[in-house]
Amino acid sequence: MIQNVLLASGVNGVLIAAAVIGITGLLIALLLGVAANAFAVPVDEKEIAVREFLPGNNCGGCGYAGCDALAKAIAAGEAPVNACPVGGAAVADQIGAVMGVDSGEAVKMVAFVKCAGTCDKAGVKANYYGISDCKRAAAIPGRGDKACAYGCMGFGSCVDACQFDAIHVEHGVAVVDKEKCVACGKCIEECPNHLIELVPYEAKYAVNCSNKDKGPKVMAVCEVGCIGCGICEKQCKFDAITLENNIAHIDQEKCKGCGLCAQKCPKKIIMEH
Description:
Alpha-Beta Plaits, two-stranded antiparallel ribbon
């Protein structure tokens, strides 16, 4: 009899403990549900839809800290639907459909290195043995071995920065592959001499020099540098060329691609792009 009573008490204790645990678990679940609803962050369905169309490279070429940040900005109306340089017009059209706006005419841009001072054209002031990194070498007196202080140093920091294998150093100068470039701008950020800029993919001609010195000094350090003579500016019938800091500059919106400036340039520094 006593044994049966003890057994029954033990069973009741287990049942009570199980009931307590079950009720406690249920209360915790209810509290978590209430908390989740109370502190839930509203989800923008447009932001999710926009993010699905972005390529996911997180290159920062759009000016935002990755594709998630850009998607949020587009959904909030803080960035245009064609802000992604990697996706181009196709992605802009898809995002425009999500946002219910016209994607606009997106001009494909590519990086361009404003230097033609290859190893056989640029003068050498000394044999350089040191750090093979443009930014670090730029901080060292002498800045590498080339006599032109404005030209491409040729160490390839821009090459390392490019995620798309679109830029390589050839004969001492960085060269951009137009077909691979997505205009993310990473190479522009890395160049300490500020030689790289974005130009339209369809641009016909560009000035391959960044030397701001006057003619005699330029000729002393490079065979093909712009001497700021102004002949190209005078020859252009479309007012597309001006001299800025002793360098010819082409306004690509005005340029008609006639090539007269390239023909008349005595240094042949205006080249087909």
